[in-house]
């Protein structure tokens, strides 16, 4: 099937989905959860084939781990649908309905976006997660996963569609592009008229490709060169605990800390303590010239270190003379994801919150909290690092839009 | 100056602007208003030169009228700044600050988008309007107007910058690209890293070019193939008044009605009345086969008429057998701008509001009300016909985004 046909099907079904009530949508999600559980054997077999081929091609173990499904991971996907079913439906609410002087009633009604495209790499769980959130928010979804996971994705989507069908709901609420080539990716990026938004999830390279080539609106997600600034007044123990957590609790995620900015006045005392703490996890510290002098074992950073998202046991360190310099450095090199200040100073905390231009700005807490579940959204489809439409963790509400509904009794414009 | 330098300047100044309070911003707007008035002679002279050259090139009178400034039009721009100064500042509000179970306080703070690009054609008033709204919402703006109005635009921007300077505010809050060539337009569309959003204002062709070539996020505005559906139960007089208003009150605007959908059961009676009413303004009616038979003087429509935004004294008419057919036709051919139903039937009104997929959906009122001032926003920068970020008239709030501010006391993620 070509993409225009898929787009037309999705658009058609999205009209139906906009009319579904919360109960029907939850019935669909629970049926999809049951179908995933019932198809566990087929999904695991398909995944086994993907993993075998990936290993034969020499895929790195870390990537293979993201690709691999187990019985409990399939159950986690099914449980994910149940969690989404438990979330409140954002659709249909009319906000701020007001009466204009001419008697017109004008309100903003929350409605689905329509058709959402998701383009991603080798994580088959994205297939299920994306469907769950799109379905609950009344959107049809077209999925384009990576070739490494194609057999897993086909099996997962087949099960979800069977579940929807058994619940009397439209199967085309989810469609998977079975052609994993680049040509179909490019076609998806230019499916204006059918696709209301395209969300890339994955590596910085994938996201850049989508931003540069899409003519449909894109929500840029994910890349996180997150900074922590240790202010002159910081509580050292708090700073060490937060940095240790933000750097090492999980290294491969976008909200992990990649770069430290430290006030020069405390560096001589703080950096040796930091080195010692991070040695527990063999974190390599790459510092500017002075940092290297202040603590043994800190290796020299190059200019490109300041802009690098390592996703590894590596951390860069830059010394500054002032909060101004810290803010300038962070606003220059960060990807606008998450940044934190560790301070006891009220004015500095306030200025950091005001002047750092990122999706999530923290005082005295780990950047690892930038996450839909941690923010209380129940689930997330990604973390937006752009400013348009959605910023930070995107939950159900970020998959909706509004339309103006206007009730009159014959008004014309004078 | 090249665009990267302009982008860097804008980005730098946008950091300052995010910190300006409402009083400072209003002072800037009032100073800019005074400067426009004081520079009236220079602006009119520059405009006279633009108009002379445009006429020499054979520009159509309607276009020349849009290009031409008069003393009262310059005063209207200055008054526009005063009106924007009177609007409430959306920046700085923190929405729904909540305490999470771990004690973190998480809130959404409303902040400027940062740097906004506006690309437009030959209307010099857009120069002033765009600056006013961007400035009040704390954004730096880079303007790229059409070559036809370049001398007018240069004079207007010069005056505004002088006004800002006299008020001690950063002149680079507004920059105009003086090179009016296509190459600089393309460069602007790819100014990622500096531009947070690009808003095209003007013809369908301009908007398409921007959507297809931009790598920065775009808000699509304007094109309006607006429909009115006359239901079987419609009050004929109301329908005639609304159609007459929506079609003829101002023909060159995006919220004018371009196409009529009429229930077949009333067509024989209604169409002759419609023809008579629209004859008052010599409106050409292009109808499907049956319409042509039902009223003398209706001329045959071709397939492309259903998708055409005439911006002229022309209206297409399509007959349908049901509300379903009307909704399908409208959702297929409309540009998602504004559509209205004329009906006495509650269920049909409700279904139309629910199922029409447009920015503004009306019951028993003219589509001409889709406008920032009419909606009570005070002013607008354009009307979005896309679903991402903003839909319908865009006021100050639509030129903002949020960031999450998180206050902790040492929280780390378990």
From TrEMBL, chains A, B:
Localization of this protein: Cytoplasm
Principal location listed in the UniProt entry: cytoplasm
Domain of life: Bacteria
Entry GO terms, CC: cytoplasm
Pathway it works in: Amino-acid biosynthesis; L-proline biosynthesis; L-glutamate 5-semialdehyde from L-glutamate: step 2/2
Domain Aldehyde dehydrogenase intervals: 8-284, 314-403
EC number, as in UniProt: 1.2.1.41
InterPro entries (alphabetical): Ald_DH/histidinol_DH, Ald_DH_C, Ald_DH_N, Aldehyde_DH_dom, G-glutamylP_reductase_CS, Glu-5-SA_DH, GPR_dom
The keyword Oxidoreductase appears for this protein: yes
Catalyzed reactions: L-glutamate 5-semialdehyde + phosphate + NADP(+) = L-glutamyl 5-phosphate + NADPH + H(+)
Pfam hit, one: Aldedh
One GO process term, biological-process aspect: L-proline biosynthetic process
Keyword NADP: yes
Molecular function as annotated in GO: glutamate-5-semialdehyde dehydrogenase activity; NADP binding
Keyword list, A-Z: Amino-acid biosynthesis, Cytoplasm, NADP, Oxidoreductase, Proline biosynthesis
Membership in a protein family: Belongs to the gamma-glutamyl phosphate reductase family.
Function comment: Catalyzes the NADPH-dependent reduction of L-glutamate 5-phosphate into L-glutamate 5-semialdehyde and phosphate. The product spontaneously undergoes cyclization to form 1-pyrroline-5-carboxylate.
Cited HAMAP family: ProA (MF_00412)
Protein's recorded name: Gamma-glutamyl phosphate reductase
Taxonomy of the source species: Bacteria, Bacillati, Bacillota, Clostridia, Lachnospirales
